[in-house]
Prior knowledge:
By secondary structure, the chain is of the alpha/beta class. The protein is built from five helices and five strands, in the order E-H-E-H-E-H-E-H-E-H. It is globular.
Amino acid sequence: xxxxxxxxxxxxxxxxxxxxxxxxxxxxxxxxxxxxxxxxxxxxxxxxxxxxxxxxxxxxxxxxxxxxxxxxxxxxxxxxxxxxxxxxxxxxxxxxxxxxxxxxxxxxxxxxxxxxxxxxxxxxx
Length: 125
């Protein structure tokens, strides 16, 4: 269960097509506010979050969802901003991973593999 958060419909479509071709179930929203509201009602495992959106950017949305008492998803920043300080800020906001645009399907597959490896390492009850 994957949520794509991006205010650009073309970017949403590109990421959605890549994830669908990797046999993933995808939901899309267009803003940080929509993501926070959606996550109050629905459980997702992974969020691909654009960093630069109007009103509530990806880092603000991530901080908000990290403060919520919900199943915490693995959050991956998607951005054209490749500056090291932006990556550091994104990770400090609570994001788990960082992918710069332009990216290819193999980049998306790699972050999903890292997520799967983290899940397999979690202790079971």
